[in-house]
Write a structure and sequence with these properties.
Layout: H1 3-42, H2 46-51, E1 58-63, H3 70-74, E2 81-86, H4 96-108, E3 113-119, H5 123-129, H6 137-150, H7 152-156, H8 161-182, H9 184-192, E4 197-203, E5 210-212
Parallel strand pairs: 1-2, 1-3, 3-4
Antiparallel strand pairs: 4-5
The structure holds cobalt (II) ion (CO).
The site of cobalt (II) ion (CO) has 7 residues, from helix 5.
């Protein structure tokens, strides 16, 4: 093949690629128009109601993975679920983003349920379980390695790698539920009201079904002594 031909082929390929990219983007805008039409056909007042405000009962803290969208998984509508997502649904007590979402959800929206929702086959958990370097994200995944360390007695005994991964997904959710309970935000809310529950879920991508890990927390009762906080004197 001549140099010219190779050059021509590669320019055609890159043109095809850029058209595909443009099409993919246009599909999103078209998808939006289709969605608006569907909703308006169902209820001409839909967007007026949506614009009026939100009163969600649930805060969902889930993985950024594109396969686990909060509304679809729970068959809920816009306005019903307040959402925070990050890689591997980690709740770190120094993460201002997570804390701000949690504080707003608990103290302003007064949500009744906070759900930490992990999923089997989580790439973030798999990466944390490996020894490979992935870049900046390694620092985020460190939190999951810490979960492993807390449960290494149990996890080290599991020889099947996929079972080990599934179990680390579950243990990570449980630890994040515990992390939320340790925050002043949740502990102070429990002092004021009894209707706030923190739950841990895992979604099975192969069936779509949610497994409730039955770790629901409704008070600081089971928190280790070191994490229990007295009432604030500055409030
Ligand atoms: Co994930």
């Amino acid at each position: 093949m001549s140099k010219e031909n190779i050059k021509k082929m590669s320019s055609e390929l890159s043109q095809e690629k850029s058209e595909k990219q443009k099409r993919g983007y246009q599909e999103l805008l078209q998808g939006n128009r289709d969605w608006v039409k569907t909703e308006l056909d169902r209820d001409p007042d839909y967007f007026n109601k949506l614009a009026a405000g939100q009163e969600p009962d649930v805060l969902w803290i889930g993985c950024s993975d594109s396969r686990v969208p909060a509304n679809e998984v729970t068959n809920t509508r816009p306005g019903q679920v307040f959402v925070h997502r990050n890689i591997a649904n980690v709740c770190v007590h120094s993460d201002m983003n997570m804390l701000s979402v949690l504080d707003y959800a608990v103290n302003v929206l007064k949500v009744k349920h906070v759900i930490v929702s992990g999923h089997y086959g989580c790439g973030g958990i798999a990466a944390a379980l490996s020894n490979q370097q992935f870049g900046l994200i390694d620092n985020w995944l460190r939190h999951i390695k810490d979960v492993y360390r807390l449960h290494s007695n149990e996890l080290d005994r599991i020889t099947d790698e996929s079972i080990k991964l599934d179990r680390l997904v579950e243990l990570n959710v449980i630890e994040q539920v515990y992390n939320l309970c340790k925050t002043t935000i949740v502990q102070n809310a429990w002092r004021e009201r009894e209707d706030l529950e923190i739950h841990g879920w895992v979604i099975d991508l192969k069936t779509g079904l949610v497994k409730d890990l039955q770790v629901t927390a409704k008070s600081s009762e089971n928190l280790g002594k070191i994490f229990k906080l007295d009432e604030s004197k500055v409030r």
